[in-house]
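Late entry, written up from scratch paper. The run itself happened at the end of the previous shift, but nothing got recorded in the book at the time, so transcribing now.
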Amino acid sequence: MFSHLHSTLIQKTGASTISKTKVIQELWSGYGKIMRLRLENATVPSVVVKHVQLPNKANHPRGWNTDIGHQRKVKSYDVETNWYETYSQKSAARLPHCLGIERHEGEVLMILEDLDAAGFVLRKHTLSWEELERCLAWLAKFHASYLGENPKGLWEVGTYWHLATRPDELAALTDQKLKEAAPLIDKKLGSCTYQTFVHGDAKLANFCFANNGDVAGVDFQYVGGGCGMKDVAYFIGSCLDEKDCERLEAKILDTYFKYFQNALEKPNQALETEWRTMYRLAWADFHRFLKGWSPGHWKINSYSERVLAEVINAL
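Output as recorded:
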């Protein structure tokens, strides 16, 4: 495979050789790795390569080693390559440029711009309000870029927790009211008049920050169709505690929609009205997955339970 990588790198960057290879991280459940390659005599000093190599035996860290899970991951990498090849160039939100895709004997290499070399060198575990606002602006620009687009070759419904792809987690759910409400929540989110592409895994760990405050997003395995509130709710849950999730909810939505409306050619108040009603539905949708997947997870808190109760009562 690496002979194919070398020839593709030479073709795409003019590099004479690879001077250094560093593993950034292993992919989830042992499905490959992400590497940074230093290049000699190339148009760029380095690239990041996502090397997808399907394991002989799945090794899910929480024990979900099923064929459903395996097929979901396989499709996710097909989706990501389709995303970079077909759709990524249209994004007004910053993300890594794709320099090339190489497929060979069941393995896939995605050769991507090194965002560290582009100045996005910071990773955050907590955010100031200003940094959180930059991420909301990124999501708003991303969603505005794909409003009304058909997610052909992507997930028909984006997000890694989509109900149709998580039957095992639904079966494991002990909250009977939530189990009964889950299809209704999913149906309401799916029947939005206004659909876009959602990132599908917009957690804090998938954002890279520059010293000047700019933000870039990575990891597009679960990009697909949907309501943008799915990304917003999931992102907020990844970086704020439950008190701030509740205290800042109105400010979060006002900030997101300010940037979203500015990203459109002309304001769309009907969309904003519809999507605002979907925020808590999106929150409850992810909470459903979490309670089935990992009942002891730290994100299962009193705020999420109150949101869920409100949503179920409204249904």
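Residues 67-87 form the longest helix (21 residues).
(Scratch paper discarded after transcription.)
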